[in-house]
Amino acid sequence: MHIDDFFQKIPQRLDPLFQDIENIWDPLDRLKEFIQDTIRPNLPDFISPGVPLPEHIVLLPNGWLTVGFEILCNSSTKGRLQVWIDGEPVPKASLLCAGSVFADLNIEVAEGVTIEPGALIKGPTIIESATEVRQGAYVRGDCIFGEKCVVGHTTEVKHSIFLDNAKAGHFAYIGDSILGNNVNLGAGTKMANLKFGPGTVTINIDGQKVDTSRRKIGAILGDNVQTGCNSVTNPGAFVGRDCLIPPTTSVMPGFYKPNSIIRS
């Protein structure tokens, strides 16, 4: 089991998380400290932690706006909320919608991000460019979302990493996990992270038992993995790149080689 079995490209900013790792789950052990060392919080200080935003706020490269823009969402924007100024779209503008909630201000929001009404985000959290955090999402902190990711409706995420274009669009739970580039989770996917019974999570790799030394660990899904609706990964499910997990599958702990179709 090697990093190349999972990821073909690591975003440059996240290189320190993945360099010189001995185990594929080592980035999760480094995550909290890495975020503390690299986060650049940029929410405006007039936001009241824990209180739903009373109005839309727009982040531009030169600062925040609360007036002087309009929000469109129609067929021309392909159903996405979009910021327009002076009759023109502004792709680099980030939108924090009225009704979204920020538990604290230790949050970094890059260009082109959309936070929809009803989302609740706790820091420390890093959200890279063009990512969507949709209505009803719950981000519990110690999270990194790469570029063009989706945290969907009633999706809960804690202590996890999304590489670029990773999408958990509907009714998902992601705990202590890593989603590779272009991963797509079908509606209702659950990534369980707590072992039943005492002790740490142990997995089978090539016929040998390996102790992760973690009481809590979810799944690691390599690049381009797709999960079907209502699938479940058990603690310590390490799925190589380009694998398919059909609907309602329960993925047991262990390592699954790239290009596999995984069935219960």
What are the SSEs and their pairings?
Blueprint: H1 15-18, H2 26-38, E1 57-60, E2 63-65, E3 70-72, E4 82-85, E5 88-89, E6 94-96, E7 101-102, E8 107-109, E9 114-115, E10 120-121, E11 125-127, E12 132-133, E13 138-139, E14 143-145, E15 150-153, E16 156-158, E17 161-162, E18 167-170, E19 173-175, E20 178-179, E21 184-185, E22 190-191, E23 202-205, E24 208-211, E25 219-221, E26 226-227, E27 232-233, E28 237-239, E29 244-245, E30 250-251, E31 254-256
Parallel strand pairs: 6-9, 7-10, 8-11, 9-12, 10-13, 11-14, 12-15, 13-16, 14-17, 15-18, 16-19, 17-20, 18-21, 19-22, 20-25, 21-26, 22-27, 25-28, 26-29, 27-30, 28-31
Antiparallel strand pairs: 1-2, 1-6, 3-4, 4-5, 23-24
Could you characterize the architecture of this molecule?
- The protein is mainly beta.
- The chain has one domain (3-256): Hexapeptide repeat proteins (UDP N-Acetylglucosamine Acyltransferase, domain 1, 3 Solenoid), CATH 2.160.10.10.
- Helices cover 6% and strands 32% of the residues.
- It is built from 2 helices and 31 strands.
- The chain has helices at 15-18, 26-38; strands spanning 57-60, 63-65, 70-72, 82-85, 88-89, 94-96, 101-102, 107-109, 114-115, 120-121, 125-127, 132-133, 138-139, 143-145, 150-153, 156-158, 161-162, 167-170, 173-175, 178-179, 184-185, 190-191, 202-205, 208-211, 219-221, 226-227, 232-233, 237-239, 244-245, 250-251, 254-256.
- The protein has a 10-stranded mixed beta sheet, with no helix packed on it. An 8-stranded parallel beta sheet has the order 7-10-13-16-19-22-27-30, with no helix packed on it.
- A hairpin with a 2-residue loop joins strand 23 (202-205) and strand 24.
- The model has no long low-confidence stretch (mean pLDDT 95).
